[in-house]
Each structure stands twice: as structure tokens, then as C-alpha cells.
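Course assignment 3, question 2. Fill in each field.
Student: A.L.
Task: Predict the tertiary structure for the chain below.
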Amino acid sequence: MIHPSQIQPGSRVRLHVALTLADGTVAESTFDSEPLELVIGDGTLVKGLEIALYGLRPGQRQTLTLHPDQAYGARDAEAVGWLPREQFPADMPLQPGTLVGFVGPQGEEVAALVLAVEAERVQIDFNHPLAGKPIVFETEILAVEPPAEATDDESA
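Answer field:
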């Protein structure tokens, strides 16, 4: 039986997280700022990072190295392509390394990295910046609330 303070699908969780590359580069961290608050399954974290939290309780810390398939997936060569320069505002400074925002098919914001700029076209990479890389995932669980249905069942 799962204890209500253990993280499970639907739990509301307040936590600190850090994502670090194998070379020690910190890609993202909340340890020196406000903690992250989310509901497990709401899409805030990729599935592999969520699964790594299952069963943890407040006060616990964990550090795991996740293979790309467990984190942001493999790089997809088809996510790299060329777009006409005219699709970008004329005054937009485009250079390799620039992040550009696009609107996806469902209206969501999608970030892409500029890889190359030519007079008539721009090479864009829509892969997640951490795709294809092993990630060191460190977390400290600060608070866990059981899923709403578990709370409703207990009060019945």
C-alpha cells in the first residue's frame, strides 16, 4: 500500500531539482531559488523525471543519472531543418546559438535553436537542448500532498 506522503501519480509536490550534464554543467536548478511546485502527471517534468520521483517522501534527497531515453530522449535528425529567412522578422538578430520561439500545431510555444544563418535561409534545431544527453537528476522533496481522489476517498 502506498503511504499518502509518498509521491505517486496525481500527487502535488513541492521540490528542488537540478539537472546537470555529465561534464558538471548545470542546465537547470532551483536549489538557490524558489522550489518547483507541480502535480505528478501535469507535464511539468518529462515522464522519466516524474517516474524517478515515485515513492519519495518529504525530506528525502535523491541523485540519479538518467540515460537520454529516460530523460529528454534521443536527438532526432528530422527535427533539424532549414526555414526561409523571410519567415523571421527582418530586425530579428539571428546567429548560431540564438533561441527562437515558434507556435506549435496545438498553439503551444516551442523553442528552437538557430544552428546556421545564410542569406536566404536559417537552419533550426527543434530538439530539446538536453536531448541525447545523459542527465544527472538531483532532487530534494519538500512537501507532498496525496492525489485529490485519495483525499476525497479518505474523507468519505
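Instructor remarks: Confidence is low (pLDDT under 50) at residues 151-156. Helices lie at 47-53, 148-155.
Grade: pending
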